[in-house]
Design a protein that fits this description.
Blueprint: H1 3-6, H2 9-14, H3 18-60, H4 65-74, H5 81-97, H6 104-127, H7 130-159, H8 167-224
């Protein structure tokens, strides 16, 4: 086997020590799972943004609140997060408004609490698995470095049995060890980029939700008077 074959990526992986192979396998598996969630979260956040835009257009077009509420109730399987927040708030508002013992502040506060609870659930759903991407981004380079350190130790341990150490003898062992670091970075970089992007998008959506809840609470307060 010549040096070029020894230094090809496939040969380096196949000829790596058992510990380095396990590290590479772990990193490849983690990378595949992170890419799965990257695509899933990208579609989910895009869908949340589109549905939020659509509901805001319908809401601020001056339509009847009862009609919007009935539409949300009848189409729960396709409603967006903001529409579900509106539904929870308006349902609680209509329930409390019929109680004569409650004043305006109590009715509006009850609707706001109902919206806040739904808001937290929707935000938790959007935030789900982002912590996994953050963990992959922060831990994967160190796992790859562990494989590299172990591979270099294994390579130098093999040199102790040789009378003459040459570059051709030590290069394949060091190269296969460095492959583990490369795979760790390959797993970490997309996860970090995706996490930062998704966290920013979720923060922007959450601000839109909070703004809507405040504006809708003001509308409800005017209606109950």
């Amino acid at each position: 086997m010549n040096v070029s074959q020894d230094l090809s990526i496939i040969e380096l992986i196949l000829n790596a020590s058992l510990v380095v192979k396990l590290v590479m396998l772990l990193l490849i598996g983690v990378s595949l799972v992170s890419w799965y969630w990257i695509f899933r979260k990208a579609f989910a956040i895009r869908d949340a943004r589109v549905r939020t835009d659509q509901f805001e257009r319908d809401f601020w077009s001056g339509g009847d609140l009862n009609a919007l509420y009935q539409s949300a109730m009848n189409n729960r399987h396709v409603t967006g997060a903001l529409e579900r927040i509106f539904e929870a708030g308006y349902r609680e508002f209509t329930k409390l408004r019929g109680q004569t013992s409650l004043d305006t502040k109590a009715v509006v506060d009850g609707a706001r609490r109902a919206m806040r609870a739904t808001y937290q659930r929707e935000l938790d759903d959007l935030d789900s698995h982002l912590s996994f991407l953050a963990s992959v981004g922060s831990v994967s380079p160190y796992v790859g470095l562990l494989g590299t350190v172990w591979g270099i130790m294994h390579s130098f341990r093999g040199l102790s049995n040789m009378t003459t150490a040459t570059l051709s003898a030590v290069a394949p062992g060091i190269a296969e060890a460095l492959v583990a670091t490369a795979i760790g970075l390959f797993a970490a970089i997309p996860a970090v980029v995706a996490y930062n992007r998704f966290a920013h998008d979720v923060d922007r959506i959450s601000v839109r939700f909070e703004s809507f809840m405040e504006e809708f609470s003001n509308i409800l307060q005017r209606q109950v008077r």
